[in-house]
From TrEMBL:
BP terms from Gene Ontology: protein transport
Record membrane topology: Single-pass membrane protein; Single-pass type II membrane protein
The keyword Transmembrane is annotated on this UniProt entry: yes
Location in or out of the cell: Cell membrane
Entry protein name: Biopolymer transporter ExbD
UniProt keyword terms in alphabetical order: Cell membrane, Membrane, Protein transport, Transmembrane, Transmembrane helix, Transport
Length: 164
């Protein structure tokens, strides 16, 4: 017998179609009424040892932030990384300074074994990326600080009011 009875398949498909025709409008109406809560920013209780990095780019004319006439970061601009949010560094200098900083923290804690006993003592890297900074700048920063030995990297964003 080589014939397949398609009647049950058609019946199941019609029932599913009717269920979806009823369920989708109900789900959409429910989602439209959803309000995401907005939390007020509070001061971070971060450790002083955490490394703060800001990643941006030059503008279309090659000017950095803070220079007269700066028109904002450009996706085609040159990457700029600010160590502890103040000092601009290049790729090699970022690696060197991050490594020296982490090494000093580890030595102050009593060596690698001592700092591994209390994982809360291991510093983290917090990256604040400009909205127009291309991924190549962010990825290069991540690569350099991971190569320097930082195991945890996080991103800092500015919360946006979804109800505005």
């Amino acid at each position: 017998m080589s014939d397949i009875n398609t009647t049950p398949l058609v019946d199941v498909m019609l029932v599913l179609l009717i269920i979806f025709l009823i369920a989708v409008p109900v789900a959409i109406q429910t989602i439209e009424k959803l309000r995401i809560p907005v939390f007020e920013s509070t001061e971070s209780k971060d450790k002083v040892e955490n490394l703060q990095l800001t990643v941006s780019t030059t503008d279309a004319a090659g000017r950095s932030a803070g220079e007269p006439g700066f028109e904002g970061a450009s996706r085609e601009g040159e990457c700029r990384v600010y160590f502890n949010n103040t000092t601009p560094v290049d790729s090699q200098e970022l690696y060197d300074r991050a490594f020296e900083r982490l090494d000093a923290i580890v030595q102050r804690a009593g060596g690698p074994e001592a700092i591994m006993e209390d994982p809360d003592m291991i510093p983290q890297v917090h990256i604040r990326g400009d909205v127009n900074a291309p991924w190549r700048c962010i990825a290069g920063t991540i690569y350099n600080v991971q190569a320097a030995g930082y195991p945890t990297i996080g991103f800092i964003s500015n919360p946006v009011d979804p109800n505005a």
